[in-house]
Amino acid sequence: MFFDMMRDPAILVLCSIALAGCSGLPGLVLRDGTLGQRLASVAALTSSLLALPSLLYLLIGGGEASFLLNWNLPFGPCEVALDPLSLFFLIPIFLIFPAGSLYALGYWPAASHSSQRSVTFFYGLLACAMALVVVSRNGALFVMAWEIMALSGYFLLVAEHREGEVRGAGTVYLVASHLGGAALLVLFASLFMITGSFGFPAAGSLAVGAGLAATLFWLVLAGFGSKAGIMPLHLWLPSAHANAPSHVSALLSGVMLKIGIYGILRVISFFTERPLWWGGVLTVAGLGSAVMGICVASAQKDIKRLLAYSSIENLGIISAGIGMFLLGDGTGNQRLAFLGLAGALFHVLNHVIFKPLLFFCAGSVMHATGTRDLDRMGGLARRLPYTAFFTLCGAVAICGLPPFNGFASEMLLYLGFFGEARAGQPFVALGAPVLALVGGVAVISFVKLYGIAFLGEPRTAAAAEAHEATGTMLAPIALLACLALTGGLFPQLFLALVQPAMRVLAPGLARAAVLPIAPVWFALAGVSVICLAAILYLFLKAKTGGSAVSAPTWGCGYLRPSPRIQYTGSSFGAFFSSLSGSLIRTRITVGQVAGLTPAAVRLSYHPEETLLHRVVLPVLNVLGIGCAFVRRLQHGEVQIYILYIFVTLMLLLLWVH
Fold this sequence. Notes:
Number of strands: 4
Oligomer: single chain
Structural class: mainly alpha
Number of helices: 27
């Protein structure tokens, strides 16, 4: 039994989930699309105002609640429950969902987009489905909510379905989602065979043999790892995030990827014993995803693809932290286990903040310039000063630099990796230089993004005429930037949310272990960086404060310099891209030059991921040819189908006898 004071906030959370799912319904009924969109935003904000205080109250106060839904369905009664792990992963949903709904009023208005009604409806349905996944305690209900989540994401992704690239991205996403869903069906069917019920086993109660445990782990990795974008299960992610509307990309990257992490943690919590090699697999896979993801990101000239590949990097860091926790738990190293799990969960919160911040900023840039191509931007800092400032905040945060929150969570992982060099397990310490490499390449990638897009001179007329985003777009951006700064200066506030969630996976760990560094040092480091930046700004402003003198100079042979001679996104990252040739290649298309006085021709170049375009797509093309051959058997004639049935029955009879 639970106290009423704990159940009342829990009921508010469940009501908020239902309100989020219904938020888009008025837009489907009302003729005035603008009114429907505004009502959806009001409903989203209301659900957040109801849910977030209740979630924080339950999480910090240690409250839990469960509810039994007696539906009399074949798979038995369905239980939904709120424990610290569920409460922790509900926070990102009710933070980003209302922020995206408010952002969409300026970015995706009903007057300009015919698909606004469906986007608004499925945006709320996606948030509701993700929340149902998190609170489900029944395998059948979990899979149903998972499929609703996958289908809602698909319809949001193909909002601009008239474009071939968008339809292709939607197809890849749908295939990957259903393959992952098939793995989850096998996983929960296996758990049903073991326990005799679709209900989730209690934490630490599942004891199975080594072979069966290994099978379940690989199913977990296939089903949830594909949703989290862990390489090489990430193939749907870059094109999906690049082609979806920016507020949808923020929800997909900021929240839906974390649902995959939640699934991994939830199923891992079932087991009494967790083999040591599980931690090794997750650590290697996570660090590999982090390195390869950011290397491919550094070569991108599409601003949203760059952000999409950096999501792979950050989810890799989170996966490596979970692997570090399993390694520490398996070897009895509490310090390693604590730093790994705390760093992973802390980075979940941080990524929820700075990645939607960057996607919102990218949407503002696209809204102002009409393009995702960095090479067609430039000089936007003067025209979009607020967006430029908030983009800089997000870039510093995602690079893991003080004073923003990315620094604090990555520092915990650094401390874990470096600590093992002294603990007699030097092989784990190899993760530290890998993480440093990831951070260095991230700096290269986001210096390119910010420098090419916001500095210099406009490269096109559209960039020269760019305008600042509206207030409804800037408000959620400013909120997320403030949260990113708060998490960097006062990490103890975020860690207060992390520690209750750790109790589900390691009950004694959250109470016994302590941080090896006092949180006050994060605040001092952050304040020092802010002061140093302010001094540098004032110095540069004073130095350039005098009147500017213009005079003709030697133009190096160019009588009329053009903005097109500036560095582009491709040229800036060309050297590093050449070092990552095994991961990425550049496809160059050049028009034919003919005649004595040839007309202007177009040269285009597109970075392509080697694994996707040289391995996966050729295999899919071969499978497509095979499916096209099988399709010939479908003539649409009933008598032919009867003949097929007859032949099949005869073959079965012969096989039986």
